[in-house]
Amino acid sequence: MKTWRELEDIQPKVMKMIENSLNKGRVSHAYLFEGGRGTGKKDVSFQMAKSLFCTNRDGAKPCSTCSNCRRIESQNHPDVHFISPEGQSIKKEQIQYLQAEFQRTGVESRKKLYIIEHVNKMTPNAANSLLKFLEEPHADTYAILLTEQVHQLLDTIVSRCQVLSFQPLTPQVLVDTLVEHSVSPSTAQLLSHLTNSLEEALQLNEDEWFGLAGKLVIKLNETLVTRPEQALFFIQEQWISHFKDKEQYEKGLHLLLLLYRDLVQLQADNEQTIAFIGYREQLKKQALQTTQRKSVQRLEAVLKAKQKLSSNMNPQLLIEELVLELQEG
Ligand SMILES: [Zn+2]
Questions:
Q1: Which residues have C-beta under 5 Å from ligand 1, the single-atom ion?
Q2: Helix extents (H) in the chain
Q3: Gene3D superfamilies per the record (predicted)?
């Protein structure tokens, strides 16, 4: 679990708002944390829970060592309930259980808190039960609802909560988080150029198809540089059997676009932001052998191909046409 301090780096606005509410004693009875996976919603909800129950708080920050803090962290506190989908959904019984628990007075303190993860996955019955619960707030009852899909929630639920929007991860935070998830630094860097969603980045990292797609894009570039007359043959022999539908072509063209963008960046002496770090040395050599104008032309050719792809041009025809254009450079 991320510390308060780490969360301040990832979600400065959210943490500031929570800190102010805690310091001023103006904590809302219901919060809705919305934002993509990996943006820290669950960690923030637990830090906030600890702050609400901590017996040794420093300003708004929980001590993390008192018995309340430790029991919340290990999900063992009798007055703090954490609910997540059982199977595909959150069921009415789960909300009813919560209500029953809360009707009794707090076991240890009078204060009670529940956190519901993936709250958009409630069945309609569960959503109605929760709505009733939110409509009749008890003085010392707090709710934190977490979701990646705020538009799937009933407006009546959203309107009863203070909504805190979690920002997408910055490329650097995404890279660091991916490396924490055992992704190699060079792959993490490439993925951070393709998405700002941790979930999508982790999926791509596990995806064998994607791994090979990246290698084929590099190989296509090498063929174009060293044996341009073989490039069409390469497309027919290796590319077409791997890239099958429009979506896959989109990914392939996106990777090729990043590669030419790297080349332009290297020619402008801007090494910091390149995507293909693992391929940097070869790209540097290539950058010296061609002009910036030509690299930009190639970049534009790939962009144009991407547009044609979205207007439903046959992908195979499209890549062949593109390769002919890149050959000329
Ligand atoms: Zn504490």
A1: 54, 56, 62-63, 66, 69
A2: 4-10, 12-23, 41-53, 67-73, 92-103, 124-135, 155-158, 171-180, 185-192, 198-206, 208-226, 231-234, 240-242, 246-267, 280-289, 292-310, 315-328
A3: P-loop containing nucleotide triphosphate hydrolases (3.40.50.300)
